[in-house]
Amino acid sequence: MCGIIGYIGKKNVVPILIEGLKKLEYRGYDSAGIAVVDDGPILRRRAKGKISVLEDVLKQDEVKGNYGIGHTRWATHGRPSEENAHPHQDCTGDIVIVHNGIIEKYMDLKTQLSFEGHKFQTETDTEVIAHLIEKYFQENLEEAVRQAMEHLEGEFAVAVISSRDRDKIVLVKQGPPVIVGLGENEYFISSDVNPLLLYTKDVVFLNDGEMAVIEREGVTYSDFSGKLLKKKIDHINWNPLMIEKSGFKHFMLKEIFEQPRVIRDTLKGRISMDKGKVLLGEIGLPPERIKSIRRVVILACGTSFNASLVGKYFIEEIAGIPVDVEYASEYRYRNFILDKNSLVVAVSQSGETADTLAALRALKVKKPLTLAVCNVESSSIARETAGLLMTHAGPEIGVAATKTFSAQMTALMLLALYLGQINESMDKDTGLSYIKELQRIPTKIESILSQTEGLEKLAKKFISASHFLYLGRWANYPIALEGALKLKEISYIHAEGYPSGEMKHGPIALIDDNMPTMAIAPKDRIYEKIMSNISEIKARSGYVIAVAYEDDKEIEAKVDAVIRIPAILPLLSPFLTTVPLQLFAYYIAAARGADVDQPRNLAKSVTVE
Ligand code: AGP
User: Fold this and answer.
1) Is 2 a catalytic residue?
2) This prediction's pTM
3) DSSP H or E segment with residue 437
4) Which one of 22, 23, 110, 604 is the catalytic residue?
5) Ligand 1 centre and the CA of 400: distance in Å?
6) Which contiguous run of DSSP H or E holds residue 52?
7) How far is the CA of 375 from the centre of ligand 1 (A)?
8) What is the DSSP letter of 196?
9) What are the pLDDT digits (tens) for 189-242?
10) Which fold has domain 243-449?
11) Which CATH superfamily is domain 453-591 in?
12) Mutual orientation of helices 127-136 and 106-115 as an angle, nearest 10°?
């Protein structure tokens, strides 16, 4: 949930750290800070608030250096403030660290270290790491770090520098991601690849229990016991321009408009029209194992949970296999009723969500088949499952997931078709009809994106709304959840997604002038049902907006406003109904002046529990 950055080389480190922190800001932005070294002591500058506040501090109180570390924070222990901002230091200021994660039982450590004479300056758990390293420091920084790690429990990605053992950055990983970027006689560290792409595409991902000592002459890798390791160098294919806004006001809007390309990229090379088949051998699961699958459990959080719920309808309709979709944060504490005939799918854009990773690790004891649906290839979740089905959405900078949601639905549709092929639950013609319609989705989304004026005008009517109800049925019930989540997380308007059939079991009591309803109403096999739900709302003077097909002539007279989408095979309608709801939330939030790309209290990747 925080962002770590670091550099060692010949350049002035400050602009590199600041630009890197800006690209990590979506991971957390309560406060930020840097610590740099030139010839003298370590110089630290910190500020509460966003990176721009830290930049103002640096304008007033400039520092320079040729190596250093930086951090942007999402507070877990200790309120957002300058004194709680990283980097943190030991008693002397000669050892300085940045940390992403949570140190369990840190108060026990803090009490013991205080008893031994260490003076603490912050409310954070992180500071205990700096004092622990100080306690063990003799002459060699990595040795002191190694000894300190033996006393830490919890999740930590830590970068350390010291003026007592200069010209090196020591990096450790136990939980949250951290990466080394390999330049020309210069090296970088970062919580994710985005900041590195400006300088290098050659990176090394540390695994849990591993350390790196980064010096100008090169990088040495070892485990926490000191055993030297040889690490694979990954080459990242994303280009830096993919991270820029390309003329859009917000990354979120750009990413909504990228969805046609993202769906095409996620489909690319995975469909054979002449065979009428899906080609998913790349996921690396043996077909004979897949044939034995009798149950699918999908684990996810947030938007990925909502995409997984759509995947449930795909797999059950096409492959005829029962699917349970579970909140990973709940499932991890459950009694896992799984066996070798179960397929567990972990759906995670970042591949680093702590709850999803923890649930996946815990359930392995039952020996199910495991598959990850991820957007980051070398992420922890992607590396800890037997199979991997990548979404090709590219980096998503907006904290609110949009294009990765569509990419996840695409991947899950491909998986459903693949499972159906292998267990022969779907006849060839049906499979072909789905495949053909899948390939038409990007063009249909482009048609929605080409006429947003009316939608923007409608959305702006609701900038003062306090509540919203989103209703959907069948495969669009998850879209009601996702539409509500989008509105909540970027405009801060309370919104609830509900299966529309549930209205009469309670929520209809909410209907009044202050409770507008968004009803997702594609002409599918239950269209009449949602129309009766709409009538129930209208009978109680509720305001209703319907998302409906362009050729639906009857809906206009029954609701207050209509958002039109192209018709599509009913099961695939979630791909289209999603887009206007993303835009609706975006336009309201932008009109409210909300921080659309970095909503308050949120972070892009929840790498702590
Ligand atoms: C959704 O807009 C949020 N960004 C959040 O709910 C996110 O989907 C969730 O934290 C899961 O993240 P993941 O896909 O990286 O696991």
Assistant:
1) yes
2) 0.78
3) helix 428-449
4) 604
5) 7
6) helix 51-60
7) 12
8) G
9) 999 888 998 899 999 999 999 999 999 999 999 999 999 999 999 998 877 666
10) Rossmann fold (3.40.50)
11) Glucose-6-phosphate isomerase like protein; domain 1 (3.40.50.10490)
12) 50
